[in-house]
Batch of 2 targets.
Target 1
Amino acid sequence: MDKKILTRSLRYHYKKSSTKTPSTVLSEAMPKIPVAVVVKNTNERRDPYEVARRRMITEQLLPRGIKDERVIAAMGRVKRHEFVTSGMENQAYLDRPLQIGFGQTISQPLIVALMTEELKLSGNERVLEIGTGSGYQAAVLAEIVEHVFSIERIPDLSERAAVAINAAGYRNVTLKIGDGSLGWKEKAPFDRIIVTAGAPCVPDALKEQLSNGGFLVIPVGDEEIQNLNIIRKDGDVFQKRIATACRFVRLVGQQGWSEK
Ligand code: SAM
């Protein structure tokens, strides 16, 4: 990556939002990604996936307002190409969702970053994810928090995600096959809950299993289009904010959509 282009892009992003210089922000946000492209000799070039991952950050995430340095660093580290369907690795860092089989998708990088940022993580949380899918979102969370619990209703997807998560070396992720619209009562309460499928309404079970002061991030709407709801639990009060419109596959379950 050309350092000038990178710096220009960061300057564009940070000029209004931070007093830090672009290069300071970059080194804090992506400590494990060197700025300079070092080519030792003509046969030894940079990993093309690492280059693509860095471009994903500088061209998709930063210009669209992703600011949380933990999230940016995590997405710089997780090898998204190891979570997509075999044969689609070269599309892994494109600015769009990809099919992962069974009519399901791995979400667009930007929506993963946005939802993770909206969880307002500090690092010591226990997080419940509904909709393991490829396992990519769980891996991004595992980079940041203490423990991730993730539920997937399609057994083959859960098993495939388990292989990818183990191969990537994450030991703080526990997967379960089942109906995530009911949450995971035995492991509750959770500091944060993220639902990566679109629900007709917020499942009561998830509200109950959220810790006091915790955040629940969930797309709610009809089967075509939803609003990304950010819900904060304050005792018996649930405060709601809408972050953006979005489009997810359906949350199918007892407190979601019925199976067609
Ligand atoms: N987070 C995933 C990732 O990083 O690849 C993407 C999830 S995909 C957009 C939504 C997933 O939710 C699908 O894999 C789908 O099977 C799953 N799902 C739908 N309803 C569910 C339910 N009630 N419980 C658990 N998983 C569910």
Target 2
Amino acid sequence: MNSFTLKNNTFHVENIALTSIADEFNTPCYVYSKSALTQAFESFSAGFKDCDHLVCFAVKANPSLAILNLFAKLGAGFDIVSGGELARVLAAGGDPKKIVFSGVGKTEAEMQAALNADIFCFNVESASELQRLNDVASFMGKVAPISLRVNPNVDAKTHPYISTGLKNNKFGVAYEDALDIYLQAAKMSNIAIHGVDCHIGSQITELSPFLDAFDRVLALVDALAENGIVIQHIDAGGGIGICYSDETPPEFTVFATAMRAKLGSRNVKLVFEPGRALVGNAGVLLTKVEYLKHTESKNFAIVDAAMNDLMRPALYDAYHDIKAVQPRQDDTEALTYEIVGPVCESGDFLGHDRTLALVEGDILAIMSAGAYGMSMSSNYNTRPRAAEVMVDGDQCHLIRKREQIADLFALEQCLP
Ligand code: LLP
């Protein structure tokens, strides 16, 4: 079922017309579908239903409290990378015993907060971090559950900015060093070895990099067992891609079947950290055409959303489909447009060369904006962040108010 459909020549999210959302909440505005979110979570989990597993939503993809709360109610765990994300998950009712804490730069304060919350596991990314975690836990009289994030040195075949499993990335420990570091960890009094972790990148659209990385992780798990270290869970990270235009990422069921076949009869829990795959196609960014500007070489549609609202096109040259919410059926000529925002940068575009029949005031939907959209937004050009709404059938809920301009400098002051 697709939650974003054209009915009576108007795009709807579930049963609500996107035009009515733009009227009520104004633009730019992120709109999420509760049923699309639910369906994505449930179909990801379904592949692992009769084996011990935990799906930890990667909070960075979309940290909205309402989304975290929805996933928590569905039984999700969470992958966090900061004390801020920990606080969000707890505020949203997430179960701390289902939290994994990733990231290369955990501070002492973040370690303390996570130990106090009694999280499921720390994904440790270096020997120094391991030592620090042992010290912090010892000071607190606690034992920290850990996995080492190993870097399997496989090519995820994705954009270089979001590939993380190659030797030259800052993430994880080198595969060759992992056994030694585990042996050191085994001697630390305030560390308990629970798992092995690996995450090779994001927007991965082929199955083979996942399987190659998993093979290496399984070989390490077996080598650890030979050294008397029994692993209780394997965290295979996130990274499954979504379709933005014509990509064909692995289906969840195919992914699950292949991973389970590799796991064989080993008695370990499987942990995953999907982000984009659960939220990416469950959200759109609504924006209004402010001006049409025709120059000698290009036609520009200047819209009220910008790179500060959705940074992916500017940062990665990422493609997002752009649809007119009410495709024109009059004689307006379809032209090839640059869809650009009002920010003072030439890189401020949302789409190149889009053929659309537009009139000023039209509402556009930037598709597949549920992941790394709002979460990477900023206040550049002193632009208030967009409102966010979630549609549930024929109900529409405001889940984040639009920022007010005064909010943007409320923490600042001039010299006396
Ligand atoms: N686990 C770890 C340790 C991660 O670093 C990430 C993403 C994930 C899980 C979730 O990956 P996903 O399932 O969403 O692919 N801003 C970029 C994506 C950066 C991904 C960073 N790490 C983008 O907009 O494409």
